[in-house]
Amino acid sequence: MTTRTGPAPLAIHVPTRRQLLTGIGLLVLGQWILTLLDATGKTLTQQGLPLVAVAWVRYVSHVVVILLLLGPSRFRIQQRPAKPAMQWMRGALMLASTLVFFSVLKLMPLAQATALNFCAPLFVVALSPWLLGERPGRHASLTRWGGVLIGFAGMLVVVRPGGELTPAGVALGLLSALLFALLQMLTRRMAVHDAPMTTLIQSGITGAVLTTLLVPFFWFETMPTPLQCALLLSAGVTGSLGHYFVIRAFQYADASFLSPFLYLQIISATTVGYLAFGQLPDWTTALGIAVICAGGVCVAGGESVLRAIAGRLRSPR
Fold it and tell me: Quick check: is 142 in a domain?
């Protein structure tokens, strides 16, 4: 599931072209790694492994990997949140998003599931005036709401009657997008109080604790095979590393610059979906996915943002 960590505050005030390109590279790398996590979740759940048990291994391994990356002393320092209650709420929301998205992957191809999750920014625009109090100017508001309409039109093309997607998969896909939108909005609030790494650590801890409470009721019926055990452990590695690289990307470049590049994950989802599962979207579905991405770019700022990105990349600095 795409980059499932919201944009972090800008760490470098005036990034150079090299820093911007580094940010793009880290974001794309993180997206590819997170797509491998999605493919692993899809494989394991389709093979009948309990969803909660898969999530438990994923989150426990996540905490272990971050601990090894940072070392015990830095881990302890970074782990202390300024708003513990909000961090626990965000972690619970992230766990719910993970469980629902893995359920979606069990029912539909990777590319289509990822595309439906791209509806999350559309939900953010629709809900932010009420939940975040954000009321942009008239021109920006028209551009964003135009993007919402375009994106939802693309979503209707993807889930069209007679298409290959099941109604249950579509319903769960939209629920996953809504949960991810709420997660993004809560992440924005947390960014004021805690560093991105603190949020990443606390998300893993919350998920590990909550799944530990649930997993005795959803344990493996039979011992996983050696290959399944390897895939289970890899889920924690890809989940933690993917989110880590995404966080690092937003420390090199600001969110307004990187937002349009988030939609490049559809390339990794389509590629991995074909290589791992032999699934490719048909032309009509591909058109719908492209329309969803176009709507998302409009929500991010549209043509003016794309021109600004091109100008900043052409800068000699």
Answer: yes
- Which amino acid makes up residue 81? P
Using CA atoms, how far apart are residues 75 and 69, in angstroms rounded to an integer? 9
pTM of the full structure: 0.82
The CA-to-CA distance between both ends of the chain, in Å, stands at 34
Tell whether 6 is covered by a domain.
no
Does residue 10 lie within any of the structural domains? no
Q: Is the dihedral of CA 47, 216, 178, 201 positive or negative?
A: negative
Q: Does residue 5 belong to any structural domain of this protein?
A: no
* Tokens linked to 153: 């039109």
Helix (H, G, I), strand (E, B) or coil at 276: helix
Q: What would the pLDDT profile of 37-89 be if each residue is shown by its tens digit?
A: 999 999 999 998 999 999 999 999 999 989 998 888 888 888 888 888 888 99
pLDDT digits (tens, 9 = 90+) for 220-273: 888 899 999 999 999 989 988 988 888 888 778 777 677 778 888 888 999 999
Number of domains comprising the chain = 1
How far is residue 201 CA from its own chain's centroid? 16
User: What is the domain extent for residue 199?
Assistant: 17-314
Query: Is residue 7 helix, strand or coil?
Result: coil
Q: Whose structure tokens read 């800068």?
A: 315
Cα four-point dihedral sign 124, 127, 132, 134: positive
